[in-house]
């Protein structure tokens, strides 16, 4: 039997959040954490969490799993228990730092607001050609490790700087996307993009703690991208 | 009496996947008040899972490539019940739609010349089947759907589309003239119910692969659009046509792209034999998906399957080398390691045919207008209702979709629906009204489920439904088995209609959403079952053991399923493309 400790909170019935202790027969299988949740929801439909693709590409089921942010659908129980916090018990909590709506569902508005702030769309002021805008494989390679972000919020909600200033620090996810457009040879708005980021909070609140790198389920490196933006801002200032 | 808030828009799009967001973008760009209702944050829609690419004759890999060759392949792939006018439109307009994606910022992989990278996919040929394998699928590594979906969301942000994220449309509002005048929608976060009124309602709700127990589809693919259309009394077309993708990871259902075989991977049985050479001597592993899926199933049934239970075959990739695998198929390596515990660099991936795509759906014309037929068999436009993407049946896929054609379908026809609605709005279409009674009628299902006091559990009923579909309506089908399945479904309908919603709370109540989704799954399943039993032939993905041949005399046509009488009728296939003569039906071999 697998012991599971679940963060529960229904704003309509609960005065405050609590941890619910349950047990589940996994049939000895090393299930994914999402499968555990699906089985638990079968007997208690009131349990709330987000899920969609169940293969780690939609970014719905980011949660705090035994103390570490990750995607439930691609984290096997065995790996979760290795996270260390909770012993032999699976401990599931919502992503930290943002308001909880219910159970494992958080309010991601601030996270999305920071994403929108960096104007996450290609800007090019030259007329579009009749075919695609040409881009060499080398230029395109600069987008690898950036465009794959799935907006799961595992990184930003693991970042102490984001916890402290979620309204003013863009956060690792948003900044990774900011650099994705700065690095795109087809984008011509580099100067405006940098101006928009040039203040004490948007970028410079990153203190290189690297929690984001540790938790990213896609293996991306926001800290590195932030470093590139920082360099662009500094060389622009001189 | 209905006592809910009304919100009005020029156009409302239900569904925030590729098709919905492409349609929304078209309207928002022209300044019309446009809303997208999406039950998940848009980038979590199932388009995100598309891997291999978007097939389109942009003539990058081969400067001689022509959209007409792509059209030929698609017609042949459809086993000749794809509408040729629609296929012609898709293949011809495709390049423009793909270039627009690049201009919007989609991060396509590139060739040395700086153009979009194209890879070979199943069912592709040069020179109308005479010139060998083509490479026509435009790719962003093996994350093309992710790249496309994020790009479209970004385009909509740029153009100020209004998003109702994590809102769920429950039913269509139909007025006394039979016109569609919007939807009832519920905010998942707060439980608020509103009437979203619109001059044009576009269904882009995607597929319904969750009717099967084993599927590549996301949890959210519950056939909401088809369910709503059937409940409103509108017909669906070719709904018996379900694609089983050859390479779902055995046990997990997770998809590995056909691009694996496009890049040179191949299937082997337990003897290590490359068995597709026997079934499709020319195209081999890149034959149509229906052909490959059936061949795999036969290998397994005849005792040549792999693993301790002999219930899958292997996809061999290791000979491609680590460099190709990590650069062209990085996502596949990741998925295989996670879900199959197999590293493709070193060992083969266990795969099995898995439910993947709904070829049928709401019949539409190339403008996305939803259609029904009158008593004389003439097409009649349903005023106010549009559909595009997987929920629609325009029909470009007929009885079998080619890989890479779904992403093209959704951008081309999302765009064309948007263009048509834009034009209609410019010419001035009136906002039609709904009466209190119309709104009450649309809310009756929601009201009923909110007042249940007993009944069975939603998740147990869903499992039962999926098991029936898996056992009775799978890769191979037989009349008596299907009749038995239909009987089981009839008995299940009453139980599902009376399922119990125990949790009546308002804040982020996913139990309520899943109960409503179950109704939709059931509607799709029942339509599939009845239409499959009625089509007494084998064509494309519909393979019958009791009618093994294609029957062009009786079934070179669309099936139309009419929900009120549970009747299956027929509708003619379009054989009149605009710019060339039609491709006549031939024996289909690869």
From TrEMBL, chain A:
It holds the Pfam family Fer4_17. One of its GO terms (biological process) is tricarboxylic acid cycle. Its cofactor is [3Fe-4S] cluster; [4Fe-4S] cluster; [2Fe-2S] cluster. Keywords: 2Fe-2S, 3Fe-4S, 4Fe-4S, Electron transport, Iron, Iron-sulfur, Metal-binding, Oxidoreductase, Transport, Tricarboxylic acid cycle. It catalyses: a quinone + succinate = fumarate + a quinol. The keyword Nucleotidyltransferase does not apply. Residues 139-169 form the 4Fe-4S ferredoxin-type domain. Gene3D superfamilies: 3.10.20.30, Alpha-helical ferredoxin. The keyword NAD does not apply. Its EC number is 1.3.5.1. Two distinct, membrane-bound, FAD-containing enzymes are responsible for the catalysis of fumarate and succinate interconversion; the fumarate reductase is used in anaerobic growth, and the succinate dehydrogenase is used in aerobic growth. PANTHER family: SUCCINATE DEHYDROGENASE [UBIQUINONE] IRON-SULFUR SUBUNIT, MITOCHONDRIAL (PTHR11921:SF29), SUCCINATE DEHYDROGENASE IRON-SULFUR PROTEIN (PTHR11921). NCBIfam families: dhsB, PRK05950.1. Belongs to the succinate dehydrogenase/fumarate reductase iron-sulfur protein family. This is Succinate dehydrogenase iron-sulfur subunit. The gene is sdhB.
């Amino acid at each position: 039997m697998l012991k599971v400790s679940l963060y529960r909170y229904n704003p309509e019935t609960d005065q405050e959040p609590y941890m619910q202790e349950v047990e589940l027969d996994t049939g000895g299988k090393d299930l994914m954490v999402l499968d555990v949740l699906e089985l638990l929801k079968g007997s208690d439909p009131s349990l709330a969490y987000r899920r969609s693709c169940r293969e780690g590409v939609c970014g719905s089921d980011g949660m705090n799993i035994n103390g570490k942010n990750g995607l439930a659908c691609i984290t096997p129980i065995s790996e979760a228990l290795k996270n260390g916090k909770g012993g032999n018990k699976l401990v599931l909590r919502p992503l930290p730092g943002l308001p909880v709506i219910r159970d494992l569902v958080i309010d991601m508005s601030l996270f999305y607001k920071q994403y929108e702030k960096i104007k996450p769309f290609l800007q090019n002021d030259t007329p579009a050609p009749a075919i695609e805008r040409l881009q060499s494989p080398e230029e395109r390679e600069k987008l690898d490790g950036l465009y794959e972000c799935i907006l799961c919020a595992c990184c930003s909600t693991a970042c102490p700087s984001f916890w402290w200033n979620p309204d003013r620090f863009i956060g690792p996810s948003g900044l990774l996307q900011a650099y994705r457009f700065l690095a795109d040879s087809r984008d011509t708005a580099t100067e405006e993009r940098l101006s928009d980021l040039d203040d004490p909070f948007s970028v410079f609140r990153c203190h290189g703690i690297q929690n984001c790198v540790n938790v990213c389920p896609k293996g991306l490196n926001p800290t590195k991208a932030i470093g590139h933006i920082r360099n662009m801002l500094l060389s622009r200032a001189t | 009496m209905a006592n809910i808030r009304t919100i009005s828009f020029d156009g409302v799009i239900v569904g925030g996947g590729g098709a919905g967001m492409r349609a929304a973008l078209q309207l928002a760009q022209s300044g019309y008040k446009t809303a997208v209702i999406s039950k998940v944050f848009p980038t979590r829609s199932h388009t995100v899972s598309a891997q291999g690419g978007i097939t389109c004759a942009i003539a990058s890999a081969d400067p001689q490539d022509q959209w007409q060759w792509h059209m030929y392949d698609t017609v042949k792939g459809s086993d000749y019940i794809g509408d040729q006018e629609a296929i012609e439109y898709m293949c011809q307009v495709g390049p423009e739609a793909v270039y627009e994606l690049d201009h919007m910022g989609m991060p396509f992989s590139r060739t040395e010349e700086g153009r979009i990278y194209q890879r070979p996919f199943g069912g592709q040929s040069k020179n109308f089947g005479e010139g060998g394998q083509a490479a026509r699928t435009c790719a962003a590594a093996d994350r093309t759907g992710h790249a496309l979906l994020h790009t479209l969301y970004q385009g909509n942000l740029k153009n100020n589309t209004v998003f109702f994220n994590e809102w769920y449309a429950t039913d269509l509002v139909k007025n006394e003239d039979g016109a569609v005048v919007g939807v009832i929608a519920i905010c998942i976060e707060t439980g608020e119910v509103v009437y979203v009124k619109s001059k044009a309602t576009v269904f882009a709700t995607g597929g319904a692969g969750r009717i099967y127990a084993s599927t590549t589809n996301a949890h959210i693919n519950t056939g909401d659009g088809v369910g709503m259309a059937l409940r409103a009394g509108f017909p669906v077309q070719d709904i018996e046509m379900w694609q089983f993708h050859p390479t779902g990871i055995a046990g997990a259902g997770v998809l590995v792209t056909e691009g694996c075989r496009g890049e040179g991977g191949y299937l082997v049985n337990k003897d290590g034999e490359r068995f597709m050479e026997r079934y499709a001597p020319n195209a081999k592993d890149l034959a149509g998906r229906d052909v490959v899926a059936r061949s795999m199933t036969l290998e397994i049934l005849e005792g040549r399957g792999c693993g301790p239970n002999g219930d899958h075959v292997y996809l061999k990739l290791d000979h491609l080398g680590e460099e190709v695998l990590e650069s062209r198929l990085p996502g596949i390596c990741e998925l295989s390691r996670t879900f199959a515990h197999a590293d493709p660099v070193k060992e083969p991936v266990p795969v099995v045919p898995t439910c993947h795509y709904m070829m049928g759906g709401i019949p539409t014309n190339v403008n996305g207008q939803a259609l029904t037929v009158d008593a004389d068999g003439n097409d009649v436009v349903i005023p106010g209702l549009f559909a595009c993407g997987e929920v629609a049946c325009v029909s470009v896929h007929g009885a079998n979709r080619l890989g890479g054609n779904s992403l093209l379908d959704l951008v081309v026809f999302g765009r064309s629906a948007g263009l048509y609605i834009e034009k209609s709005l410019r010419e001035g279409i009136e906002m039609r009204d709904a009466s209190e009674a119309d709104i009450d009628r649309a809310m009756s299902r929601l009201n009923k489920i909110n007042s249940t006091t007993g009944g069975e559990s939603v998740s147990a009923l869903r499992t039962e439904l999926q098991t029936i579909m898996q056992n009775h309506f799978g890769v191979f089908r037989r009349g008596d088995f299907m009749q038995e399945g239909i009987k089981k479904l009839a008995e299940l309908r009453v139980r599902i209609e009376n399922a119990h919603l125990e949790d009546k709370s308002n804040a982020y109540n996913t139990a309520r959403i899943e109960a409503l989704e179950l109704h939709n799954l059931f509607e799709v399943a029942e339509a599939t079952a009845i239409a499959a039993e009625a089509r007494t032939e084998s064509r494309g993905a519909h393979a019958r053991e009791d009618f093994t041949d294609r029957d062009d005399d009786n079934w070179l046509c669309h099936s139309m399923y009419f929900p009120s009488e549970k009747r299956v009728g027929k509708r003619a296939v379009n054989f009149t493309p605009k710019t060339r003569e039609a491709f006549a039906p031939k024996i289909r071999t690869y």
